[in-house]
């Protein structure tokens, strides 16, 4: 199971204005200046724009969202002709901060941002959402066991999953709690790990990071994650032909990716928000723009039918390609060696153990929580 | 004098790589992956790109910069064909956080971001900078008098002004300490106030904020600022023809803009960073793209030669237009009435009094600090 993030790709729902609900019993209201309704087809400047899409974001008062929402509103994610409605999910405790975020969105005067609504009821906020960005998980506190964290965040995602399923369009628990939404529409973020892996390979090879391609993160967004240097390429060549230091690749490289988050927390006093939000943008763009020929990206997706022999019924990061339609297919031409397989198997074992911990949250009976070791999320101290 | 922000427009300096100084005695080094040097003309993908520009940012470890730097790197400010070098100025105390920012910039894999260097010596960091974004002022602490704040931030800007002048390409103090740089190249930010004013007028008029134009903030980024509803337009019509509530315009409107920052601090627990960085982006874009026909923008600029009768030798926010070449001209066809003139005169009086407070920092003898009242910056409590 991946914490932190999940996204749904576009659903084909009839658009209904969030700000002027057809059913007057619906109490959700647009925030501040966004109470105005817009007929985008009536104006010269906006009549060629696409139909508005609704984007629901949980954890909307948090630090990652504080970067991400402004990127969504600016048009850099979905394009300069895609008007958007933001539906922000907070908690009772964070409601004032959520209002502050909505105020800053007002003050930013983004032309594409036509609606902002805020709320604390996921059933309400996820109504009609074509994309749901679930960023509302809690970070692990000092002295907290990973199993405790799974329990807490599992409940959050279970609730959000149920809400998504009930009224409209987040990892395994969420997916299992939303049986009406195709499992293929759920993604768990490993893109930050992919980006960090590309950067570290570039640094070691002495090239710019845009020369690194075909980078897969296998498995979990945790210390068992597997940055795959066997299939990765630098300037079109296999990584191992450019970086001949096998010890560095097998030992230092993976550790650098895994520990990057922790180093950042020490330097910066809090976990990475800016680069995390950049990676969320990258992840979404990878689904809405065609993948460059010969390349791929990593995403935590449902394992059913995967060609790599990973256990079914898991969410597992694997190499994906997209035609840009919001959908993806798994990459077939990847190779494996003993080292890579051993590492993937370890990641799989962790996810299978985590799954047993949350059995009660995914409708699979009584939880048996016997995690083999207390693995950490990248960034945890 | 405006605190918070100042920018310089492009200078015609010969580009020299910051990462590989010609003079080996120069110790500045690019951070991490950015130590690699790039020949942009050698590659198919980058050979049509513009020549790289150097952007120096002070206060680079702060919250505003944490948003702004990623916007600069993404290409949304200067365009998708403009490679950039970021030169980040921090303090000894903030150096670790500055490293964290540089690490997050690495992890973001921005193709246009070709160089990042970090330092604590303004003379070094401002070397060869075409743009300098001075965001390194301190916010006012509890119980601090405005005069104390002026003294502290005045010294910061005096040092930065001297450094800019000495080696390469910030408000009145900074300008006065950099006599070799044309005064016209200095801008103090009032764009956040302008954006907030547009939003509040739109809210009151029941229209979307893109319908509000010709919005001037006159004067200082403080409570004496004058949001000008006399010259402002909504859907092409004078504001007062659309909003006929004169009491609201004269009393509530201005107060709403002035107090917006304070309300946000209460809601959000800290001052606005995201929307401030959006407004900095807006301010820069207003200088590098042609102003739309008939419209204008506000910027705090040097008053010498202004057609409005504002005292010379001040930095004062006034209506500007640009051809998109980094330069600007003041707008001539604005109208005044008694109410507007009275308000502008009050803002001018405040800035003249502040100037006397910092006389020692601008080479004008001994400071006489007798501020008429303890005015506040928007957002101060």
UniProtKB/TrEMBL annotation, chains A, B:
Keywords of this entry: Chloroplast, Disulfide bond, NADP, Oxidoreductase, Plastid, Transit peptide
One Pfam family matching this protein: Ldh_1_C
Membrane-spanning segments: none
Principal location: plastid
Domain of life of the organism encoding this protein: Eukaryota
EC code(s) of this entry: 1.1.1.82
GO cellular component: chloroplast
Signal peptide: none
Cited SUPFAM superfamilies: LDH C-terminal domain-like, NAD(P)-binding Rossmann-fold domains
Every Lactate/malate dehydrogenase C-terminal domain range: 190-360
Catalytic activity: (S)-malate + NADP(+) = oxaloacetate + NADPH + H(+)
GO molecular function: L-malate dehydrogenase (NAD+) activity; L-malate dehydrogenase (NADP+) activity
Alphabetical GO biological process terms: malate metabolic process; tricarboxylic acid cycle
Stretches assigned to coiled coil: none
CDD domains found in the cross-reference section: MDH_chloroplast-like
Cross-referenced InterPro entries: Lactate/malate_DH_C, Lactate_DH/Glyco_Ohase_4_C, Malate_DH_AS, Malate_DH_NADP-dep_pln, Malate_DH_type2, NAD(P)-bd_dom_sf
PROSITE patterns: MDH
Localization terms from the record: Plastid, Chloroplast
Family membership noted in the UniProt record: Belongs to the LDH/MDH superfamily. MDH type 2 family.
PANTHER family found in the cross-reference section: MALATE DEHYDROGENASE
Known partners and oligomeric status: Homodimer.
Descriptive protein name: Malate dehydrogenase [NADP], chloroplastic
């Amino acid at each position: 199971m991946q914490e932190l993030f999940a996204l749904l790709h576009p659903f084909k729902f009839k658009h209904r204005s969030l700000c002027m609900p057809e059913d007057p019993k619906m109490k959700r209201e647009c925030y501040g200046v966004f109470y105005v309704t817009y007929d985008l087809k009536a104006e010269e400047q906006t009549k060629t724009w696409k139909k508005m899409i609704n984007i629901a974001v949980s954890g909307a008062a948090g630090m990652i969202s504080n970067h991400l929402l402004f990127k969504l509103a600016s048009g850099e994610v979905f394009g300069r002709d895609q008007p958007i409605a933001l539906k922000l999910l907070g908690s009772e405790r964070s409601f004032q901060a959520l209002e502050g975020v909505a105020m800053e969105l007002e003050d930013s005067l983004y032309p594409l941002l036509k609606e902002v609504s805020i709320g604390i009821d996921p059933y309400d906020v996820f109504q009609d959402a074509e994309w749901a960005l679930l960023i509302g998980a809690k970070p692990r506190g000092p002295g907290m066991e990973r199993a405790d964290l799974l329990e807490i965040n599992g409940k959050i995602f279970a609730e959000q999953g149920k809400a998504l399923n009930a009224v409209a369009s987040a990892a395994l628990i969420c997916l299992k709690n939303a049986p009406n939404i195709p499992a293929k529409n759920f993604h768990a973020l490993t893109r930050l790990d992919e980006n960090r892996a590309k950067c570290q390979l570039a640094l070691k090879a002495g090239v710019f990071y845009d020369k690194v391609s075909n980078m897969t993160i296998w498995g979990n967004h945790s210390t068992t994650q597997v940055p795959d240097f066997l299939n990765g390429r630098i300037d079109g060549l296999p990584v191992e032909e450019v970086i001949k230091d096998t010890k560095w690749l097998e030992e230092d490289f993976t550790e650098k990716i895994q520990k990057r988050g922790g180093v950042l927390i020490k330097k910066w006093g809090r976990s990475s928000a800016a680069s995390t939000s950049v990676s969320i943008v990258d992840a979404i763009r990878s689904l809405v723009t065609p993948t460059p020929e010969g390349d791929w990206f990593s995403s935590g997706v449902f394992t059913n039918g995967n060609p790599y022999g990973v256990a079914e019924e898991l969410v597992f990061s694997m190499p994906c390609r997209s035609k840009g339609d919001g959908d993806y297919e798994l990459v077939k031409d990847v190779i494996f060696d003993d080292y890579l397989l051993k590492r993937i198997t370890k990641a799989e074992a962790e996810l299978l153990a985590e799954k047993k911990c949350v059995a009660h949250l995914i409708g699979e009976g009584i939880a048996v929580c016997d995690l083999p070791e207390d693995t950490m999320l990248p960034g945890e101290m």
